[in-house]
Structure formats: C-alpha cells, structure tokens
Write a structure and sequence with these properties.
The structure holds two protein chains of two kinds.
Chain A (H helix, E strand, L loop, with lengths): L7 E10 L2 E11 L4 E5 L6 H9 L6 E6 L2 E2 L10 E4 L11 H11 L4 H14 L15 H13 L5 E5 L7 H18 L2 E6 L2 H7 L2 E6 L2 E6 L1 H6 L4 H6 L4 E10 L4 E6 L3 E7 L8 E6 L5 E3 L8 E10 L3 E8 L3 E8 L10 E5 L5 E5 L1
Parallel strand pairs in A: 3-8, 3-9, 6-7, 7-8, 13-20
Antiparallel strand pairs in A: 1-2, 1-4, 4-5, 9-10, 11-12, 11-14, 12-13, 14-20, 15-19, 16-17, 16-19, 17-18
Chain B lengths: L6 H24 L16 H8 L1 H34 L2 H16 L2 H14 L6 H25 L3 H9 L4 H29 L3 H6 L7 H11 L3 H28 L6 H11 L1
Helix pairs in contact in B: 1-11, 2-11, 3-6, 3-8, 3-10, 4-6, 6-8, 7-8, 8-11
The chains are: A alpha+beta, B mainly alpha.
Chain lengths: 359, 275
C-alpha cells in the first residue's frame, strides 16, 4: 500500500435495500491515523456505511478503498479492517484471553507472538487478572474493553467502531470516551467511529461527517461543523440552536451576508457558501451566544418572556418566548443570577455569533 | 380456598400419578418374580435378567435396535442440522413451508408415515430391511432434532459470526469455531432424543423391517403374543432405565447449554470440541 494513501476512500458509494436507499452517492476520505466519526440520526445510513467498509454488506454501486487498495467485493476476512460491534459480539464460549487471541490464531501467528501480543492488548485495556473470565462474568464496560482489545490486537489499518458505548450508562460512557481517545493515541490506528451522539463524536474526533437520509451533509472538524454548519439539518443536529427566519439582502463576498432577520432587523451575518441575495435562510444562534439583559432598551433587541429556567450544574438553560421570533433557548453560566420566571427580558446576540444556512 | 390444596384434587392427582406409574412398578416387580407365569408373587430372583441376557432373540433384537438407533440418530442430525442452517437464512414462503413440513412430521400419526414409506419403498423396488427402518426413523425423528437445533440457532447472535469473519476466519472456520460450537449442546441433545425415540419405536420398524432381524420392541411384541414371562419384564426394566438415563442426559445437556461457559469444567469440554 502506498504510504500517503488515505485510510479509507469511499467513491460514489451507494447501497439500496429494495426500494430503500440506505446510502446515496457517498464520497468520503478518512486520513491515516485520524479519529473520524460518522454521526447522524438512526436510519441515516451510517451503520450501513460502516458495514460496507467492514465487508458485511456489498455496495450496490461505488468503490471502497482501504489504504489505497480497492477492497470492493473483498470478503471481510481478507480485509485489514477490524470492527468493535455495538453488541460487542464476544464469543461466549471463549474466555477473555481466547477472545482476544481469536484473530491472531486465524492469522496463524506463532504461539509466542500470540502470547506477547494478547498480553500487551490486555494491559492496554487494563484487564490484567481477568484473562480467564468468561464474557458473561464481565461488566458492560469490561466487555467493551475486551471487544476493543480483540480488534486492535490484530493491528488493522482501520478500526471500525459501531456505537460501542451505546449500551453503557452515562458515567461509564464519559470514562470510556477518555479511554478510547487515549487508546487511539497509543495505537495510532485509524479509528472510524459511528454514533448518533454528536457530543460523543465531538469530544473524541479529529473530524466528523454528518449524515442524513443516506446523504453526506457535511464533513469537517467538530468545531467547524458546530460553528459553521452548511445545512439546516446539520445546524439542528449538532446542537440545540435558535433558528431565526431571514433573507439575504446582499453578499459581502467573504462569506458574510447582509441579512434581514425577521423581528431583529438587518445584520451582517456569516453563512454557508453560495447564498445569493433574495435567498430565504435560517439564521442560527447557539444558546450560549444569546445574551440576556433585564431592562435593556438597546436597539436590535428581541423582547421575550422567560417561560422556564432549568439548573444543570455548570450552566442554566433559560427558555424564552418572543412574540416576534417564537421560542428561544439560552444557556447562561450556572453562577450568574437566574432571570425570574415570567419576567420580561431583552435578548441580543453579536453579529459574529450568528450563522446563516439555506432553509 | 386454595384449590390446589383441596383433598379432592390431592386424591385425583394421586390417582393420575398411580395410573401413569403403576404399570411400570408392576413391570419392575414382575421382573424379579420367581413365578414364571406371573400369576402370583412367589419370591424374588435375579434369574430373569440372566435369562434375558442370554436369550439370543433378545440379544439379536437389542443389537439390531442399537444399530438402527445410532444410524438413524446420525441421519436425523445430518438432516436436521443442514435443514436448520438453511432455514435460518430462508425467508417468506420457503421458510413457512419448511416449518410446516417439520410440524407435519410430528403431528401426522406415525402409522400414516410408516405405511406411506412402506408403499414408496415397494414402488421404487427398494428392498425392505435395516436401511429402510433407519430411513423411516430418521424421517420422523429429524423433525424433533430440527426443533431442538432451531431453538438454539434462534439464540445465536449473527454478530458473532460476523465478528469471526471480521477477525479473519473463513466461512468454514467461522462455522467450526462459532456456529457449530454454539450448536453443540443442541446437537448432542437432539442426537440423544432421536436415538431414544428410535430405541422404542414399533410402528415404523414393523412396517419397514421386511424379512430382516426385528429390533427389540418387535421381538418383545412377539414374545408377549406367545407367552408373558418375567423375562419380558426384565427386558422392559432394562430398556426403561436406559431410556430414562438418555433422556435425562439429553435434557441436562440442553438446559445447561444456556449457562454454557460458566463453569471451568464445561469450558474444558468445549475446548475439546475446538480441537
């Protein structure tokens, strides 16, 4: 394989099940050593994409390259790709050690090498002392780590992870997210991670791809996707956002647009590329960018009533109702004084914190 | 009022149990009776067991029965396993048809199948004998074997086989290292069940034996027609214990299958399969 080839290259990949289009014309490149995530709601085609890379599903059309080698039509057992399954799929009749050794045994590695590598993998996922335990005797988190070790011990070019934390409780998830990230750094294998949880993907990934209904909506660094969503779907999916209706008045050319926002007035707003004057847009403002003032008379302020205040520890979520723009959500620091329920407030946001996407 | 504790239901239960078990008790006692006509109890002896053991009729019958039972159990397993594996991937009508054929073999009276097979073999000029009995038993017993194997297959997570393939195992290796091992308890249980059912079959054997040596149940039937002796009781007791032992083993293997892998002793058995 050439050293500069991408870890995974998908070319016009398409998969249909009968009439259902699961994945449609997907073009994607995952760089070597990258922690890459595919996110999207359930049924968006992310798992199907992963299964095609693993070789469990044959694409209807298109090509799959792993490390520059075309593996379209290559059976799963001939791909240097390993998978961590959502259900872990540990072999119940084998103990931890034998589960991890499975791939090396199939590759007919020498006995001594298997012993060393399995030992290293067990140490890597901190399961020392549990070598002879059966999967059924392990906790969910431990099972998950066995599944990880079983995959990375083979040193694949790409590790595919299909919602591996989906079955775990919140606290354990957070813990394992950190461990996954550490593991990724330690082994240097390309990770391709599939999840419906954008927070999880953002916290671990170098880059994320957002999919919806079989279509790739956007690929980019987490912050980029979060701050500069290219479509209304992405804006909505990657985080609770306030959506204001607007229309482009003129384009500045540097990705900024003079935009007439309903109920707010004309503002200079950044936005997705290619918006033309007259285009209907949704202007997105993140909850944490909304500023609340109790008795403001400044211009371009949205008058709103506080309908709910929820205390979340480090922050507060304030729900507002405005006669002109509808419902809004604002996050404020948990330490600041909370606005009174039912009180009238003024809501503002800075130009640079707004972002226009096509409707 | 608790109906289950009511004296009437207690008496009824006792009667039902007596009805079911008394014949076996009588056979058991009769097998030790010194009175060869079994008209009255005249004292205990183990003589009849010795007699049965050395009766060439019984010995040949038992030998034939064992051969038929082993061969038909193996044939049942082959039919059931391949069928069940196909059934797992089948969809729609084909799958429903297969299910129907399995249940039909259980529901339709044995005598119907036995006579149908009899006419079939006659029609195709296949000489009746030991092979036809084996086939006849397998036709019926493979249905039970199929149900047992299917029950285990349903619980087999397809992700396990995908995981094996993902880790580099070829389809054959995956079948051996994952599918077959998971099914092994069901295969053993199904085999024992088919063996036991073949052991005490009369109807199918009777129709399909032709002029060959009769299996034990038919030998017994012939003996009874001639004369009832404690020897028959002794053979009956022997077969009874053999059957109970096998069934216990079959049930034991299948019910512990769910807990497969919990005990270290069992894990050693499993690793034996793995070779």
């Amino acid at each position: 394989m050439s050293s500069d080839a991408a870890a995974i290259t998908l070319v016009a990949l398409r998969k249909t099940f009968g009439d259902l289009v699961a994945v449609s014309e997907l073009d994607l490149e995952v760089q070597r050593g990258e922690f890459f995530s595919i996110i999207g709601p359930s049924g968006c085609g992310k798992t199907t994409t992963l299964r095609m890379v693993a070789g469990f599903e044959d694409p209807t059309a298109g090509k799959i390259l792993v490390g520059g080698r075309d593996v379209t039509g290559v059976r799963p057992y001939h791909r240097s790709v390993n998978t961590v399954f959502q259900s872990y799929a540990l072999f119940p009749h084998l103990d931890v050690w034998e589960n991890i050794a499975f791939g090396l045994r199939e590759a007919r590695r020498p006995r001594a090498e298997i012993a060393t590598r399995v030992g290293e993998a067990i140490k890597l996922v901190r399961l020392e002392g549990r070598e002879r335990a059966r999967p059924s005797q392990l906790s969910g988190g431990q099972q998950q780590r066995v599944a990880l070790a079983r995959a990375v011990v083979n040193r694949p070019d790409v590790l595919l992870l299909d919602e591996p934390l989906g079955a775990l409780d919140l606290k354990l998830r957070a813990e394992l997210q950190t461990q996954l990230k550490d593991l990724h750094r330690a082994v240097g294998i390309t990770f391709c991670y599939v999840t419906h949880d954008q927070g999880e993907a953002f916290s671990m990934s170098d880059r994320v791809a957002v999919m919806n209904a079989g279509i790739l909506e956007q690929v980019g660094r987490p912050e980029e996707v979060y701050r500069r969503p290219q479509t209304a779907f992405v804006a909505d999916f990657v985080g609770a956002s306030n959506r204001l209706r607007g229309r482009i008045v003129s384009a500045h050319g540097d990705g900024r647009y003079r935009t007439e926002i309903e109920g707010v007035g004309e503002r200079s707003v950044s936005g997705a590329a290619g918006l033309t004057p007259g285009a209907e847009v949704t202007v997105v403002v993140r909850p944490e960018e909304l500023e609340l003032s109790t008795a403001s008379t400044a211009p371009a302020v949205i008058a709103a009533t506080v309908t709910d205040v929820a205390f979340l520890g480090s922050q507060r979520t304030v729900r507002l109702e405005s006669k002109v723009v509808g419902n809004l959500v604002a996050s404020t620091g948990g330490g600041t004084r909370a606005p009174e329920l039912g009180s009238e407030v003024g809501v503002t946001f800075k130009d640079e914190h707004s972002w226009a996407v096509p409707v | 009022m608790n109906l289950r504790r009511h004296p009437v239901s207690a008496v009824l239960s006792a009667l039902v149990i007596a009805f079911l078990w008394l014949p076996l008790v009588v056979v058991f006692i009769g097998s030790f009776d010194t009175n060869s006509l079994l008209t009255s109890w005249t004292g205990a002896t183990g003589h009849w067991y010795n007699e049965a053991l050395h009766d060439p009729n019984v010995r040949d019958g038992f030998e034939t029965t064992l051969i038929i039972a082993v061969l038909s159990a193996l044939l049942s397993l082959a039919v059931a396993l391949t069928g069940a594996l196909w059934w797992r991937r089948a969809h729609g009508r084909a799958r429903a048809l297969y299910d129907g054929l399995v249940y039909a073999r259980i529901v339709v009276p044995e005598v119907v199948f036995a006579s149908a097979l009899f006419f079939l073999f006659l029609k195709i000029h296949f000489t009746l004998g030991l092979p036809t009995i084996v086939i006849g038993h397998a036709v019926l017993n493979s249905a039970y074997a199929t149900l047992i194997i299917q029950a285990r297959l349903v619980g087999l997570d397809p992700a396990l086989e995908e995981a094996a393939a993902d880790l580099g195992a070829t389809p054959w290796r995956t079948f051996r290292r994952v599918t077959l091992i998971t099914l092994m308890p069901a295969i053993i249980a199904a085999g024992l069940l088919a063996f036991t059912f073949s052991l005490d079959d009369v109807v199918t054997s009777y129709f399909l034996q032709g002029t060959s040596q009769s299996p034990l149940p038919i030998v017994l039937l012939g003996m009874i027609r001639f004369r009832i002796t404690p020897e028959i009781n002794a053979v009956g007791v022997f077969v009874m214990f053999l059957t109970v032992a096998l069934m216990t083993l079959a049930v034991g293997v299948f019910s512990t299958a769910g807990r497969l892998g919990r005990s270290s002793r069992k894990s050693r058995i499993v690793s034996l399969y793995e070779g």
